[in-house]
Specification:
Number of helices: 7
Shape: elongated
Structural class: alpha+beta
Number of strands: 6
Helix content: 40-55%
CATH architecture of the largest domain: Orthogonal Bundle
Number of domains: 2
Oligomer: single chain
CATH class of the largest domain: Mainly Alpha
CATH topology of the largest domain: Arc Repressor Mutant, subunit A
Length: about 180
């Protein structure tokens, strides 16, 4: 049975995927955070382990190599590599609390058809894992900015057209949610 990519290979794939992440982020603050994180992570990879990991990724067909006219080589994630890297990234995704709450509620609503039940169940699981509170069966709430994360998860599971995002200034039973989020 073939083994999955090792830790360094996973890190390399996530770093290669950072370009994709940058294209999806609308916030300059988050773009800057991604670039700084990528630079930091590249510096932390041992060069010998890096070369070995790259060879393994080539053999697994998770990355391909493009020879440029200027003599440089570009390493690119294959389709299978992107899917694998997205899986690693989504496992770690959490909604970061704000230093000072802006008193706005973020609601994620979805109406996913029965023939996409598995995607609906995965979305519920991911939202809970990211730190959302279930408001109703197909409505989740968070007090923190999370539009980019919701967009990202929706696109990965190809359910974007079934998912809506609302920012609300008040909710009649918000004390329940303030308690849940320790606000």
């Amino acid at each position: 049975m073939p083994r999955g990519p090792g830790k360094i290979q996973q890190k390399i794939m996530l770093l290669l995927l950072a370009g994709f992440a940058l294209s999806m982020v609308r916030s300059p603050k988050k773009s800057t955070w991604i670039v700084k994180r990528v630079c930091k992570e590249w510096k932390n990879i041992n060069r010998y382990a890096f070369n070995r990991a790259i060879r393994g990724l080539y053999q697994s067909k998770l990355v391909s190599r493009n020879e440029n006219k200027d003599g440089y080589v570009t390493i690119v994630l294959t389709g299978a590599g992107k899917l694998k890297a997205l899986t690693y990234q989504i496992e770690e995704m959490r909604i970061n609390p704000m230093v000072k709450w802006d008193k706005k509620w973020r609601l994620v609503l979805f109406d996913i058809p029965e023939n996409r039940k598995k995607a609906r169940d995965i979305l519920r699981f991911r939202l809970k894992k990211m730190g959302f509170c279930e408001f109703q069966k197909s409505v989740f709430i968070s007090p923190y900015p999370c539009e980019d994360e919701v967009e990202y998860v929706s696109k990965i599971y190809n359910i974007r057209k079934f998912v809506r995002f609302i920012i609300a200034h008040s909710i009649d039973n918000e004390l329940v949610f303030k308690k849940f989020f320790s606000l």
